[in-house]
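Worked Example 4.2. Consider the chain below.
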Amino acid sequence: MQAQNDEILSNHLMYADYNTKYTSAEIQNELISICGELIKEDVVKSCNKATFFGFIADEATDESKKEQMSLYLRYAIYRLNMHFSIGITYLKQHII
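Applying the procedure from the previous section yields the following structure tokens:
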């Protein structure tokens, strides 16, 4: 845990009231969502500034017969070749 290396955080977690620790699953999920939005905004801004960008989506089926999709983004800014792996996710089956 990060609190072991951070005295202020450690004291906060030990002595704060339960409702002000911000450690519930709901709060943690909200923080993760906020971080995801900030990252997405930053990546979109970078792509908008880029001279070129490309987006690759690839689908495959794993050994357990689940479909997976990987997403990859690459862009060039001022002679820098930046890339960003968005992630791999399982696809839900849709009835058409």
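The first helix runs from residue 7 to 15. The chain has a mean pLDDT of 79. Compare this with Example 4.1 before moving on.
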